[in-house]
Design brief:
- The chain is α/β, with parallel strands linked by helices and about 350 residues long.
- Helix content is about 35%, strand content about 25%.
- It is built from 9 helices and 15 strands.
- The strands form 2 sheets. It has a 9-stranded mixed sheet. Strands 3-2-1-4-5-6 form a 6-stranded parallel sheet, with helices on both faces.
- α5 links the parallel β5 and β6 (about 120).
- α1 crosses α8 (about 280-290) and α4 runs parallel beside α5 (about 105-115).
- The longest helix has 19 residues, at about 305-320.
- It starts with a strand and ends in a 10-residue tail after the last strand.
- The structure holds nicotinamide-adenine-dinucleotide (NAD).
- Nicotinamide-adenine-dinucleotide binds next to α1 and α4.
Length: about 350
């Protein structure tokens, strides 16, 4: 039985709690929030112990895996401290995205986890959907041939005006991760961004990408749309065919070249994903299974290292925009521990 704890339980942490409790071989033992009232309310809701300090939690409870669902600036500045404490104590950690809003901290977390030999995963939940797994199989089985392009669109409505880069750093770990999941390493980036009328942040972005494989791609991102409508579409094309995934998990269609018959995987009303939160469920299940099977830290799915790679692409896009749309090389992954 794996013993789990969740740190940060205002919104998303409670989704982690709910799904840990649904996994048969996991026991949710405790929750932690700096806000005592929130910690106690969540503890009562899930029937577990409440803490306001992760150090005390780890000192008093036997824990194997810790979810870090804190937020902060650009939804990521509060992850570093509790994640480093959990890693120091030798725990496997699942960190919400972005790992941190600062690349230097994200790099340090990955390096420290490596040093300690623990697994660090990120909640890159958009790839943890049956449609994405099937599409990955199509690529791996050669159904698409050599990849030519990966076109991604992730557009939601979010009026957050906290920093110029909130849209890029808080939302696009997901889209860039899905692009890398299908297309591999991204080598070069060129970005143009705009602010919707009245907005102070770069709320809509258009980003060209070149993959290490030679394939090309594009990301359209926005915080200026409406959440009532589809938010995501991913199209991947190769020399033998192409697929389109609609709205994360709703439908994946494979269009083989030179054939009229299509393959369509549709989310079932009765047995499919019951909503977006089910991506969290699949993601947590995968992490827990991988821990149970003792999968080595370097081989886990949706790893912290992959999240860091997506963040490197986002920061490169920001640089490109700052350099007036220059084509900028994505830096090789750096993991660094401060001396
Ligand atoms: N994967 C997804 O699809 C998805 C969707 C939405 C949000 N998120 C991510 O989930 C995370 C949490 O989002 P939220 O909206 O619940 O954030 P939030 O800011 O509403 O809540 C964070 C909570 O963490 C607590 N906290 C901060 N530092 C702490 C610490 N050191 N120890 C204990 N508690 C601490 C705060 O008191 C707060 O209650 C963010 O990183 C966000 O980007 C992911």
């Amino acid at each position: 039985m794996l013993k789990a704890a969740v740190v940060g339980v205002r919104h998303i942490g409670k989704v982690h709690c709910r799904y840990y409790q649904e996994i048969p071989d996991v026991e949710l033992v405790a929750v932690c929030d700096l806000d005592q009232k929130l910690a106690e309310a969540a503890a009562q809701q899930f029937g577990v112990k409440a803490y306001t300090d992760i150090k005390a939690l780890l000192a008093h409870e036997e824990i194997d895996v810790v979810s870090i669902a804190t937020g902060g600036i650009e939804n990521g500045s509060h992850h570093f401290e509790p994640a480093m404490i959990a890693i120091e104590k030798g725990k496997d950690v699942l960190v919400e995205k972005p790992l941190s809003n600062q690349l230097s901290e994200a790099r340090e977390m990955i390096a420290f986890a490596q040093e300690k030999g623990v697994r660090i995963a990120c909640n890159l939940n958009h790839r943890f959907a049956p449609a994405a797994s099937k599409a990955k199989e199509w690529i791996d089985h050669g159904n698409l041939g050599s990849l030519l392009y990966v076109n991604m669109k992730l557009t939601i409505g979010n009026q957050n005006e906290s920093t110029p880069w909130i849209h890029l750093r808080a939302l696009h770990p997901h889209s860039v991760d899905v692009m890398r999941y299908f297309g591999g390493e991204i080598k070069r980036v060129q970005a143009f961004m705009t602010k919707a009328p009245g907005r102070k942040v770069w709320s809509t972005a258009s980003i060209n990408m070149e993959f290490a494989s030679g394939a090309v791609g594009h990301l359209t991102g926005s915080y200026d749309m409406d959440n009532r409508h589809p938010i995501e579409q991913c199209e991947v094309a190769g020399t033998k065919g192409r697929f389109v995934i609609e709205d994360v998990y709703n439908e994946a269609t494979f269009y083989p070249h030179h054939q009229s018959e299509l393959t369509v995987i549709r989310n079932s009303v009765l047995t499919g994903m019951e909503g977006f939160n089910a991506t969290f469920k699949n993601r947590l299940h995968t992490f827990v299974n991988e821990i149970t099977l003792n999968v080595p830290p370097d081989e886990i799915s949706g790893s912290g290292k992959e999240a860091l790679a997506a963040q490197e692409v986002i920061e490169t896009a920001i640089r490109s925009h700052q350099e007036n749309g220059a084509v900028v090389e994505v830096k090789a992954l750096k993991q660094e521990r401060k001396k």
